[in-house]
Each structure stands twice: as C-alpha cells, then as structure tokens.
Amino acid sequence: KTVKAKVHVNFEQTIGKIEPEIYGQFIEYLGRAITGGVVDAKTNQVRKDVLEKIKRLQTPLLRFPGGTVTKIYHWQDGIGPKNLRPVRPNLIWGGEESNQFGTNEFIDYCRMLKTDPFLVVNMNTGTPEEASNWVEYCNGAGNTSFASLRKKHGYPQAHKVKYWGLGNEESAVPDTGSLQDPNKYVEIAWQYAKLMKLQDPNISLVLAGGDTKWNETLIKELHPIADYISLHYYANSKKGQPASLFAHIDTFEKEIVATKKQIHELAPEKVENFNRWYRFPARKKPLKIALDEWGIWENEGKGAYNLEVTYQWFHALGVAGFLNIFQRQADIVGMATWAQTVNVLAPIMTNEKESICQTVFYPLELYRKYCTGTSIATEVESSALEQSGAENLGILDTAASYDEDTKMLTLAVVNRHPTVAVETEIDFPVAKSLKIFEKHELTATSYTAANTLEKPSQNVVNYQHQNIDNSISSITLAPASITLLRFR
Ligand code: AHR
C-alpha cells in the first residue's frame, strides 16, 4: 500500500545552530558498561573492537562516570599507580569497581575518540572542595598540588575539561541519596560552582534538572553561574504496541518546548545581584538544555537491572525521531548524550569475544555525518499513523538542516509505518532550484528485527546510498525507513 504526503522545507525559517554536542554519548560504572564493554573485563585494556565502533559514531562529547553512580564516586580512587587503586563496592549498582579505568584512562579514551570529556561531580557523598580539586587535577596548568600530581602521573599538559555536571538527577527518589529539595540543591550548587569556576573560569556547568517546579527554582537562582540545565528522557513502548514508542518520544518535545518557555521567562538576560563571588562573569544569556541522558529503556533486558536491552528496528525509527526533535529544537537544545554506549541501554553490545552494533546504532551514525549546520523549519502534511498506541501521530516525522561548509541541505524523514510506503512531494517554497543530490536510506528486514550476539554476523539493517543529481520533487519513502535526502 502507498499513501501520499507533502513535506514543506521552509528554507528561510532558520531555527538555530545545531550544536555538534547534541551527538554525545555517555558511559557509567554500571554493569558491563565500562568493565566488559569499554575495557576487557580480564585485562582492563581498551577493547579495540568496541573503540572502532564508537569511533564510527563520531561522538563529540563523552559523559562519565555517571549517572547515579556519581553519588558515591570519589575521583581520587581512580588516579595514580593502578596496583594501589582501591577496589570499591559499587554501592549504587552492585558488584565491585576496580577503579582501573579512572580519570586519566577516561581522558585517554576521549583523545582516541577525538571527543570532548564531560565529567559529573559527586554532590551527595562528596564535597565542593573534592570537586574543585578534580577541576584542578584536570585543568590546572601551574605548580599547585593537584596539577602537579597529574603531571607526576604522566600528564604534563592540562586535560582542559570544559564540561562539568553538578550532580545527577538530584530531585530523584531518596534511596539513591539525591538532594531532593531544590533550595538545598541551589545552596549546595553555589558552593560547588564557585570553587570549581575559581579553579577554572572557562568551564561550562550543567545543572541537574528535574520536574517543572524543581527547574523553576534552579533556573531562577542558578542561571548566572550555569550554562545548561539537564533533562533526562528515556522512552519505552507499551507491550505489543511498537508505535506507542513514537507517542512517548513525542511527549518529550512538548516538555522541551515548555522548559524553553520557562528558561526565557525566568532568567532575564540582565543579571542583577551577582554578588556572591566575582572572579568570573555572570552568564547573561538564557540557559541551554542538556539532554544528558536520553535513550530507550524497555523493561525486558538482561544483565544488571535488566539494562542490556535488545533493540528492534522500530526502536531505531524512534532514535531518528529523537534526533529530529533535537534538530527542531536546536535553538534551546545545547547538548545531548545518549544513555548509554556499550551494553547498558546501548547501541553496542559485547560478549567476551565479539561485539555488535544494534539497530539503533545506524541512525546515530548517519545523522552525525550529515545533519549538521543550521536547523531549518519543516512542515508535514501526511495521513495518520493509525497504529495502536500512536494516536494523533502522522506517518512521517521530519527535520532539516543546512550546512554552510558543504552548501548542502539535508532533509531527514522517518516513515514510521511498518507496511505503508509514502509517496512524498517535497516543496521548497523559496529555494525552488535545489536539486536532490544524494539519498541515504536505512531500512531493515522487518519492523521487529534485531541484531544480536547470538548471530553476530547477521545484520538486519540495510543501508543504501544513492547519488541522484536530479531536480525531482517527489520521492517514495519505503515502509519503516529513515531517509536523509541531500539537496544542493
Ligand atoms: O542510565 C542509567 C541510569 O538512569 C543513570 O545512572 C541514571 O542517571 C538514570 O536514572
């Protein structure tokens, strides 16, 4: 079956710069995410097979060491001679942490990936001083104690870590030890921020966001010292209703829009009474949103906390939907890190010998290559998806970007329907002379197909790249497909 649709690309209506940091990743001391994923569980050496796969994602940002684990993590356990590092119980997720992959190993890993490190500090069992010492250890260029310690550990050059998270999910339930009271968070965050920024005024701070009420207090009170407020989004589908995943993802866009409104209303650009500490300037622009944990969390997985989830093809369509949202909301989404990277809710899965790319890996890889530059507004006229759990959703989901360097306009279109092809007319109200140049298409053997370690050599995902160079204005999008159309 084929239906018709129309996509308008409003070339003159730019939304904002697509920050490269929206294509970040996250790793945590959780189950087999680091030990057994990033590094070999027996040797603690970096797994080359995993590294090569992460490289394909071209991630510009890597968040570490958590997540919830930051609530018990003390960075000094993970520095210095490896044989002297303490083995600690992982009091959050269970098991033991050998601390063999600590700060410097993480920074080395980031360098191998050509990615920026993003560290999250402990605001629960740690102290502002401990966090500030971590900034000194990483970024100190002089001869102060912690900067000298880093040099002694073999790193004469400062790591220049720019991104720092002030805690993680601090509004969350008590059993993880979160701060819970927004006023308490504000009070403590000031102490952390002051000391950390006095160590290095060039760092960017990410506030640990929560619900609307919580965010209201944080935005009002902390916007002069922070650069981002974080939101965490995990989507899932209702049992037996794959398309309900898209409806869930759709609600997040509404939350992003609501938070943007809140940021603009609550944090006027003129900052007054910035009289606490003065050796760094107050931020005078509205905060950006850091979606520093986003992903798909289905309840049926293996491993620690059932987090080793197998993703089917429709999950990959959901990932493309998330990435379309980040583009559509480019004026407020300043960064996003997919949770997580290996084995835990992850695009890459390993066993002792092998690793595979799950279905969700492929849209991540494709978007990061081409959906760059400035976000351009799109509008869709398409029929309803008509799948259970996906009421009021259209078949097509779109976003567009224009890259000044390549002079290419990229239209991303997801056909979310499992069986219906969509004959799509593409309308450029102003730039009529654009020619379609390339088509990149991802499809799979079925809506529910998955790549698994049981059959490591079988890839259910098909990727097709076609050079076209034609002024066609209509294209048929295959059922359950992710297509990037590139115009010049
Ligand atoms: O990504 C897994 C966990 O989910 C993180 O540790 C926590 O921040 C979130 O609740």
Please give the CATH class of the largest domain: Alpha Beta
Number of extended strands: 23
- State the CATH architecture of the largest domain: Alpha-Beta Barrel
User: What name does the CATH topology of the largest domain carry?
Assistant: TIM Barrel
- Cα-atom Rg, whole angstroms? 23 Å
Largest sheet: 9 strands, mixed
Counted up, domains total 2
Low-confidence stretches: none
Give the amount of beta strand, in percent: 25-35%
| Global geometry | globular
Q: Kindly name the structural category.
A: alpha/beta
Fourth-level CATH superfamily of the largest domain:
Glycosidases
Q: Quick check: average pLDDT?
A: 94
Major beta sheet, strand line-up: 21-20-23-18-17-16-1-19-22
Distance between the termini: 31 Å
SS summary, helix count: 9
User: Bound small molecules, which ones?
Assistant: alpha-L-arabinofuranose
Please give the share of residues in helix. 10-25%
